[in-house]
Structure formats: structure tokens, C-alpha cells
Write a structure and sequence with these properties.
The chain is of the alpha/beta class. It is built from eight helices and seven strands.
Length: 223
């Protein structure tokens, strides 16, 4: 592992600690850093996050104080249950932007996906969708917004755009995002866009098809 410092995780310092003072055996920032490092290394449950911390305690002590050692799995569970998810999300997005720099012309793909394992059998529907912004050049998810219905992606996309620095890049979105308000929002972020168009927007779709067909016959000659 490369040499890390507290500055590498600075955006997480702003997260509010929701715990009672008498229950703060471990520093919130240090709990978050250990968990994030563990997840980046492929750990996917609380017991193994704590185990990862213990196995790499000497390394963590190079840039963390760890006054009371590595937190237990129960501590990780309790902390991540209590912290404000929106506050954590904003810090995570700020962290992603700290780790990389968007280059002009880079493609950021925005798409919504149903989260596996969240299907409600009683209601017969998927209860959680995530709208994510993916940097194709860096292979990173820059940010995501949760929505309970796929139809709500239209309102979730502008919220996600507000969180991102997109200046100079190209934003791609499927037909769900082919909306005037979304195109305007992207332009306000000083970015370009490629939006898919389908037959559900009948008149607009027909107008574009007529334009393309007509100019195809004319071989798109410029007069």
C-alpha cells in the first residue's frame, strides 16, 4: 500500500458524529477511514472490516492515532447506522473529486439501476434504484442518488448533477433523461451532453426522425 496521510481523506472530516459523548470510544473519522480502505480492498461485511483493521493496524497507525485500537464490528455497524447518509454521500463525492481530475471531453455516463436484493415480494416491486454518474476514463462512480421508483430518475438526475463538477466533460444519459430541464442543468454545469431519444416522446421523436431522414436523402449537404 502507498503512503497515505489524513489529507487524502479530508472530505470525511466534516461528517457530523451522531453518537453520545460518553460512547465515543473511537474517533469517527478513523472509523470511516478504516471502513473505506477495507471496502476498497474487497471486504463486504462488518466482521471482516474489523478483521481487516486489526490485520493492518500497524499500517493505519502510520497516519491515524487509534488511541483505543481498532473498533469492533458492532461499532462499525452502529456508526454507519447513525450517520446521515446524505452527509456521507456529499463527503464521498467530494472525496472522489479530490482523488481525480476531470479532463476536457471526458465522458460521464449517468444511468439508473435497480439494486439487487431490494425486491419487495409483498409489494411486488424493486424498492431501491440508484442513479449513478460513472467516469468512463477513470472507471469510478463519481456519485449516486437513491430513488424508490424508476420513474423518479427524472427528478433524481438533476439532484445528482448538482453534486458534481462536470465542466468540460460530456454527459451521456439514456432516454429517461431526455428532458429540457436536464439538458439545461447540464449546460449550466458548463458541460456538453448526448441524450438518447425514443418513441415515448412521439412528436419530438417524429420531428428528429423526419429531420434525419430528409437530410440523409440530401447526403447532409451544406448549402
Amino acid at each position: 500500500m502507498d503512503k497515505l496521510t489524513i489529507e487524502h481523506f479530508e472530505p470525511f472530516l466534516s461528517i457530523t458524529d451522531p453518537r453520545l459523548e460518553r460512547k465515543k470510544l473511537h474517533n469517527l473519522f478513523e472509523i470511516l477511514v478504516i471502513a473505506i480502505c477495507a471496502i476498497l480492498c474487497g471486504v463486504d461485511d462488518w466482521e471482516h472490516i474489523a478483521e481487516f483493521g486489526r490485520a493492518n493496524e500497524d499500517w493505519f497507525k502510520e497516519f491515524l492515532e487509534l488511541e483505543n485500537g481498532i473498533p469492533s464490528a458492532d461499532t462499525f455497524i452502529r456508526v454507519f447506522t447513525l450517520i446521515d447518509p446524505e452527509e456521507y454521500e456529499r463527503s464521498f463525492i467530494a472525496w472522489m473529486q479530490l482523488l481525480y481530475k476531470i479532463s476536457e471531453g471526458e465522458i460521464v455516463a449517468i444511468d439508473g439501476k435497480a439494486v439487487k436484493g431490494t425486491y419487495d415480494h409483498d409489494l411486488r416491486k424493486t424498492v431501491l434504484h440508484l442513479v449513478s454518474a460513472f467516469s468512463t476514463q477513470n472507471g469510478l462512480v463519481l456519485g449516486q442518488v437513491a430513488t424508490s421508483e424508476k420513474s423518479n430518475e427524472i427528478t433524481a438526475i438533476p439532484t445528482l448533477l448538482d453534486l458534481l463538477n462536470l465542466k468540460g466533460c460530456i454527459v451521456t444519459i439514456d432516454a429517461a433523461g431526455c428532458q429540457k430541464a436536464i439538458a439545461k442543468k447540464i449546460a449550466e454545469k458548463e458541460a456538453n451532453y448526448i441524450l438518447a431519444l425514443k418513441g415515448n416522446q412521439e412528436q419530438f421523436h417524429d420531428d428528429i426522425k423526419l429531420f434525419v431522414d430528409t437530410n440523409y436523402e440530401r447526403e447532409f449537404r451544406i448549402r
